[in-house]
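INTERNAL AUDIT FORM
Audit reference: QA-55
Scope: verify that the stored structure record matches its stored sequence.
Auditor: D.O.
Record contents follow.
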Amino acid sequence: MYVVVRIMKVTKNHQEEVIKRFLNKNLMSKSPGYIKSLLLLDSKGKDYDVFRQEIFWKDKRAFFVWEGSPEHIAMHKNKTNHSKPEEIIEVSRETYEVVGEI
C-alpha cells in the first residue's frame, strides 16, 4: 500500500470550507487503485488549523497512474476550479510505503 499525505495550514474559522471540499466526491476517488482518504484536523494552534489528508493507494504505481492521468493534469491546468483557496496558507506533501499493519 502507498500513502500520500497532504498537510495544509488553514486560516482559523475556515474548517467548514475545507471539510466540505473534502467530502465532495472527486475524480481521484474513481481512479483504479484508489482505496480511501482520511481528513484529520489539529485545531489547537492559535493562528491556524492543520489538516492532514491521508490518501491510500493500492501501490505506488496506482498513484503515479492517477498523477499522470489526463483527468488529473486537466484538473491542475483548469485554474478556475483548482486554484488554491484563499484560506489555505501552505500545503506540503509527503509519501510513504506501508511496511507493516496490525
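Auditor finding: record pair retrieved intact. The longest strand covers residues 2-11.
Action required: none
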